[in-house]
Description:
18 strands, 8-stranded mixed beta sheet, RNA-binding, about 425 residues, 3-stranded antiparallel beta sheet
Amino acid sequence: MLDPKLLRADPRAVAENLARRGFVFDVAIYAELEAERKAVQSAAESLQAQRNTLSKRIGEARQQGEDAAELMAQVSDLGDQLKSRQVALGLIRQKLDAWLIGMPNLLDPEVPDGKDAKDNLELRRWGEPADFDFEPLDHMQLGERWGLIDTEQAAAMSGARFSVLQGELALLHRALTQFMLDIHTRGHGYQECYVPYLVNAASLEGTGQLPKFREDLFALDGEEHFLIPTAEVPLTNLLRDTILEASDLPWKKVAHTPCFRAEAGSYGMDTRGLIRQHQFEKVELVLAVRPEESEAALEELTLHVEVVLKELGLPYRVISLCGGDIGFAAARTYDLEVWLPSQKTYREISSCSNFRDFQARRVKARFRPGPEEAPQLLHTLNGSGLAVGRTLVAVLENHQCEDGSVRIPECLEPWMGGVTRLGAAE
RNA sequence: GGAGAGGUGGCUGAGCGGCUGAAAGCGCUCCCCUGCUAAGGGAGUAUGGGCUAAUACCCCAUCGAGGGUUCGAAUCCCUCCCUCUCCGCCA
């Protein structure tokens, strides 16, 4: 949520900023609503103040055995007026809240201009895509050849966009998550968390998935619960209604969870393979920092994620999302894209964002800068470190050999039970 | 799922229609005293909103959440949520 005070103080600047995302903010209508709110609110509050003092006087009069009938009549009259003002205020508040909750975050000045993915800005590349002297297979061809990946059985029990992994492929999948968790906990200082996979609507509002993106979610129980689309939701909600001490910062959490996405509106896209599934595993990093540190924290977070790709020997690039492509709640986002030989292109494998105080305001996540000082909103950030399914795809495709086997990166050795090569047996 | 008890400030815990934004204790901050330690004395210590140059006043709201009764609700009534105890069920 944006700062309502900023919206009042400088609505034009807000409108200009949001226009870079292609979002239209009607300043005039907002100003009108806001003026109405102000008038009705101060009227209601001064009536309340009057009522409070008169009621207090009734109590005092009673105690001294005086007759309070006249005072009571007065207050009763006030009460009716007050009621109508409060109803009016409630309605205006509702309208303003609905408006506010539907407004995306302000963009950082560094966010590149542009209207879609074509306008994203490449920041850097790492690694050299392998120069195969044979025609590289895609991950499905590799997996199916070994009989270790099966989308037909998954389709039979669940439908499209699900998959079954077996044997050494399932092992590799598990090894990847363990490897990622260990890097971030032992290497980067994140605390591991186990969290609920079912959350309520308020939690999803806190991170920005609701109310606007309901169609991307799987709902249960008549929409009382939703399957999490990312661990960002439960992790960020750990901060709900809390005031951290300065000594608790930076606050760094990591969780490995399944993620569930309806993928509405993506029909026809990536229908083959594991790239776009309704259910996938992800290791997610979430951090909360002091406002003045969030910019640096985004750089650091991105580096933490890059370590995983480097260790796995996967060529990637980092891009800065443009105004038209960046997510609703983010002020700035770096996507990490991994090289996929079968597609001869880079594909998203992680997204690292600075939300500034946008989510913090929604979940009321604050910290106390110093003793005796007033609480202040935190800045939240998160990044995938990484999407496990897509990492599996990237490992298979980038480390394949001419005989159709796949070399397992050395860093996974502790979890692979001696398996150093997939599909080498035949 | 059944029966009962309960949800009050950072914590413990009083209050059960007006004098209570909330006793008392603990904790924390500052000051005083004490040669050190221990003890002691005093002051302060919620959050959000409005107004504002102001993190100064003042005003409004908040005692799990939402409704209701009343001139007035932490206190009475209704609904919901959560916690605890016992029973049942269960990985």
